[in-house]
C-alpha cells in the first residue's frame, strides 16, 4: 500500500471504513458495487476536509481498479464533481511522505474516468485542464515510476477523449497540445507512440490550424520521421509511408526532408513489392508531387530514372485498375497515380530544365497514352448515379491535363467521350449554380489530388478548357462540342466566372486559375469566331457575352497586372463586333463607345518612342507594361488591330470617335518621331491598315492626317495605300 493509501486509511479508520476494502470489484455491469457504495457513503458523511479528502482518494483508487459502466461513472461524477480532481491536480500540500506527482496521478485518473463520457469530455472544466495535462506529457521524471507511467496513460486518455468531441481539436490546438505532443514524441520517453497517434488525429481533423500554431515543432517531427524513413530497413518503412503524408507542411518542405524522403522512396519502389507495400509509397510520392512538383527529385541520371520509374509504376497501376470492367477500384491509390501521371505530363512538356531526356519523354508519353486510354474506358462506363463521386472528378482531371498537351493521339476515343464530358461539366456547373455556391468553383484546384474531394466535386469545366481550346480548332471535335451545347455552356460559365472578378468581390482571394480560365475561354471563343462565325450570329448567348465584354473592358484596361486578360477581352470583342455589327447594341450606344474607346487605349499604348544613346533619332519600342508579356500578347495585339480595321467600315460612327480620341494623329506623330528602320514590316502593315480605313471612312480623318504630315510619313514608310488615300480629296 502506498504512503497516500496509508494516510487515507488512517482517516477512514475513524469513520469505520478499512482501507483494505479498496479492491478491484467495480467491473459489474449491472447493480451497484458495495465497496464503491461504502466509499461514496463515507464521502457524503465526511465531517471535515481531512475525512473528505481521504474518502475521495479511495474512490479514485477504486475507479482505477477496474472497468466501470456508464451509469456508475455518472454516479461517481454526481458525487464527486470536478472539485476533487481539481484539488488533486493543483494541490501543493500532500500528506507527509507522499510525492506530489502521486496526487496528480490520482487526479488525472479520475478525470480520465469522467472523459470516457463524451458529454463530460467537452465540459469547460475538462477543457481548462488542457494546459495542465500538456505539462504532464513533457515533465521529467523516473521512467520506471509506475505512478508516473499511469499518469501519462491517463493524460493521453483525457486528451484523446477531448479530441473526439466536436470542438475538441480546436481547443487542444489553441491550448498548445500540438507542441506538447511533438516534444513528447521527439523525447521518445514513455508514451511517445501515443503522442504520435494523437498528433495524426489532430492533423487529420485540423491540418491548417495545427501548422499555424506549431509549425516549428511539427517540422522537427517531420525531420525525425523523414530521417527514420531513410534509414529504415524493416517493415517500419511501410508504416512510415502511411504516416508521412500527414506531416507534410502546407508551405515549403525542408530540403533535408525531401532528400531523405526521395532516397527512402527510391529504395522502396526499386524493389519487388506486394501491393500493400507499394501503394503507400505511391501515395506518399503523389503527395510530394502535389506539394513540390518535381523539385523534390534530384537532377541527373538518378533523378530521371526515379521519375521515369514513378510514372511507369503509376501508369501500370491505372491500367490494371481501370481496364477490366467490373473489378473493384482502389480509388485512393489510383488517384495518387493520377497525380504522378500529371507530374509526368508536366515534365514531358517542359522544354527547359526538364529532368527527363528526349528518349525518356518519348517512352513515357507512349506509356501514359495507354493509361489515358484506360481512363477514357472507365469514364465511358460512368452512369449518372456516379457523376458526383470524387474519383470520377479525379479521372476527368487527369484526362484534362493530358488533353491540354496532347489531342492528336486517341482522337477517336476522345471524340466518342466528348458528349459525356460536356454533360458531366454541365451537370456540375448547374449543381453549383443552383446552390449559388461560387466559392466552391474557385476552390476546386486547391483540393489535393491524393485525398477525397468535398461532397460536390468541383469545377470540371476549368480542367477541360485547355483541351477544348485545342479541339475547337479541329472540324470533327468542334462539331461535336457545338452539337452537345458546349458553346452555350462556356458562355454561361464565362459570365459566372467574370462575376467573381467584378467590383464587390474580393479578387485578392481568387486563385490565378480563375483569370487563366477566363483567358482560355476567350481563346475558345476566338476559335469559334474564326471557324464557326454563323454560330456567333445565331446563338443568343453570344449577344449576352458581347454585352458583358463591352461593359467590362473600360474598367479592365485601367487595372494593373491584368493587361493580358484585357487583351483577350478587347480582341474577342473586336472580332465579335465585326460579326454582330448590325446589333442595336453596337450602333453608337454608350456601352459600345466605351468599349471601342478602351480597345483604342489597349492598341495605342503598346509602343512608344525611345531615345537611343549616340543617335539623334528615337526608335520604336514596347511600352514598359507590354514589354514583359509581349510574347503572350503580340498575337492578340495584331489580331486586335486587324479586327478594329474591319470594324471601321461597318460602324459609321467609329471613325469620328477614333478621331476624337486623337489616335490617328498620335499614331502618325509616333511614326514621325522614330527611325523607320526601327519599325518592323508587320508593324508598318498593321498601322497602315488602321490609318487607311479611318481615312477612307471619314473626310475629317483624312484632313487631320494631312495636318499631321500624314503623306510625308506614308512616303517614309512606303505606305502606298495610305499615301494614295491621303492624296485624294
Automatic annotation (TrEMBL):
SUPFAM superfamilies xrefs: ARM repeat (SSF48371)
Similarity section: Belongs to the neurochondrin family.
Protein name (record): Neurochondrin
Matching InterPro entries: ARM-type_fold, Neurochondrin
Amino acid at each position: 500500500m502506498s504512503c497516500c493509501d496509508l494516510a487515507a486509511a488512517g482517516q477512514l479508520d475513524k469513520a469505520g471504513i478499512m482501507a483494505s476494502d479498496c479492491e478491484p470489484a467495480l467491473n459489474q455491469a449491472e447493480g451497484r458495487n458495495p465497496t464503491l457504495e461504502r466509499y461514496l457513503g463515507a464521502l457524503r458523511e465526511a465531517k471535515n476536509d481531512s475525512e473528505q479528502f481521504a474518502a475521495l482518494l479511495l474512490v479514485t483508487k477504486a475507479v482505477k481498479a477496474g472497468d466501470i459502466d456508464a451509469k456508475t461513472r455518472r454516479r461517481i461524477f454526481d458525487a464527486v464533481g470536478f472539485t476533487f480532481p481539481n484539488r488533486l491536480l493543483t494541490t501543493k500540500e500532500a500528506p507527509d511522505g507522499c510525492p506530489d506527482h502521486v496526487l496528480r496521478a490520482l487526479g488525472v485518473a479520475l478525470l480520465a474516468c469522467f472523459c470516457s463520457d463524451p458529454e463530460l469530455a467537452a465540459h469547460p472544466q475538462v477543457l481548462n485542464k488542457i494546459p495542465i495535462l500538456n505539462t504532464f506529457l513533457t515533465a521529467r521524471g523516473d521512467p520506471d515510476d509506475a505512478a508516473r507511467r499511469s499518469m501519462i496513460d491517463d493524460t493521453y486518455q483525457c486528451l484523446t477523449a477531448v479530441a473526439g468531441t466536436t470542438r475538441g481539436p480546436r481547443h487542444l490546438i489553441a491550448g498548445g497540445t500540438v507542441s506538447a505532443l511533438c516534444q513528447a514524441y521527439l523525447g521518445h520517453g514513455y508514451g511517445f507512440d501515443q503522442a504520435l497517434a494523437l498528433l495524426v488525429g489532430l492533423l487529420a481533423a485540423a491540418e491548417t490550424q495545427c501548422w499555424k500554431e506549431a509549425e516549428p515543432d511539427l517540422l522537427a517531427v517531420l525531420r525525425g520521421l523523414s530521417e527514420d524513413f531513410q534509414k529504415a530497413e524493416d517493415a517500419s518503412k511501410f508504416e512510415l509511408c502511411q504516416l508521412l503524408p500527414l506531416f507534410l507542411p502546407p508551405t515549403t518542405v525542408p530540403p533535408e526532408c525531401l532528400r531523405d524522403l526521395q532516397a527512402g522512396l527510391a529504395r522502396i519502389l526499386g524493389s519487388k513489392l506486394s501491393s500493400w507495400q507499394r501503394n503507400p509509397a505511391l501515395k506518399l510520392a503523389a503527395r510530394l508531387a502535389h506539394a513540390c512538383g518535381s523539385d523534390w527529385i534530384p537532377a541527373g541520371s538518378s533523378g530521371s530514372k526515379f521519375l521515369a520509374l514513378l510514372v511507369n509504376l503509376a501508369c501500370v497501376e491505372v491500367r490494371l485498375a481501370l481496364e477490366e470492367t467490373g473489378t473493384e477500384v482502389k480509388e485512393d491509390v489510383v488517384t495518387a497515380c493520377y497525380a504522378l501521371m500529371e507530374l509526368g505530363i508536366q515534365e514531358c512538356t517542359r522544354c527547359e530544365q526538364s529532368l527527363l531526356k528526349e528518349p525518356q519523354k518519348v517512352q513515357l508519353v507512349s506509356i501514359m497514352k495507354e493509361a489515358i486510354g484506360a481512363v477514357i474506358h472507365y469514364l465511358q462506363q460512368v452512369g449518372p448515379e456516379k457523376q458526383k463521386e470524387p474519383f470520377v472528378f479525379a479521372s476527368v482531371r487527369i484526362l484534362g491535363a493530358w488533353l491540354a498537351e496532347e489531342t492528336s493521339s486517341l482522337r477517336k476515343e476522345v471524340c466518342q467521350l466528348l458528349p459525356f464530358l460536356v454533360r458531366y461539366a454541365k451537370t456540375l456547373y448547374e449543381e453549383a449554380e443552383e446552390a449559388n455556391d461560387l466559392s466552391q468553383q474557385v476552390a476546386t484546384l486547391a483540393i489535393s489530388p491524393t485525398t477525397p474531394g468535398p461532397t460536390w466535386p468541383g469545377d470540371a469545366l476549368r480542367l477541360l478548357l485547355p483541351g477544348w481550346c485545342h479541339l475547337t480548332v479541329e472540324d470533327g471535335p468542334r462539331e461535336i462540342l457545338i452539337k452537345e451545347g458546349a458553346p452555350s455552356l462556356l458562355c454561361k460559365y464565362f459570365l459566372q466566372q467574370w462575376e467573381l472578378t467584378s467590383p464587390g468581390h474580393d479578387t485578392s482571394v481568387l486563385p490565378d486559375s480563375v483569370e487563366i480560365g477566363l483567358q482560355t475561354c476567350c481563346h475558345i471563343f476566338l476559335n469559334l469566331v474564326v471557324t464557326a462565325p454563323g454560330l456567333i450570329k445565331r446563338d443568343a448567348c453570344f449577344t449576352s457575352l458581347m454585352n458583358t465584354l463591352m461593359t467590362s473592358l473600360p474598367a479592365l484596361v485601367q487595372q494593373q497586372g491584368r493587361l493580358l486578360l484585357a487583351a483577350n477581352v478587347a480582341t474577342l470583342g473586336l472580332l465579335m463586333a465585326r460579326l454582330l455589327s448590325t446589333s442595336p447594341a453596337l450602333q453608337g450606344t454608350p456601352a459600345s463607345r466605351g468599349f471601342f474607346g478602351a480597345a483604342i487605349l489597349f492598341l495605342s499604348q503598346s509602343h512608344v518612342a525611345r531615345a537611343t544613346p549616340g543617335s539623334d533619332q528615337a526608335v520604336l519600342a514596347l511600352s514598359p507594361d507590354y514589354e514583359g508579356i509581349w510574347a503572350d500578347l503580340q498575337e492578340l495585339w495584331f489580331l486586335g488591330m486587324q479586327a478594329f480595321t474591319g470594324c471601321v467600315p461597318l460602324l459609321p460612327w467609329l471613325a469620328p470617335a477614333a478621331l476624337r480620341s486623337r489616335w490617328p494623329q498620335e499614331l502618325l506623330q509616333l511614326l514621325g518621331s522614330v527611325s523607320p528602320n526601327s519599325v518592323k514590316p508587320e508593324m508598318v502593315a498593321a498601322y497602315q491598315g488602321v490609318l487607311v480605313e479611318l481615312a477612307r471612312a471619314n473626310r475629317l480623318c483624312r484632313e487631320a492626317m494631312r495636318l499631321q504630315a500624314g503623306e510625308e510619313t506614308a512616303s517614309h514608310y512606303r505606305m502606298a495605300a495610305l499615301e494614295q488615300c491621303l492624296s485624294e480629296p
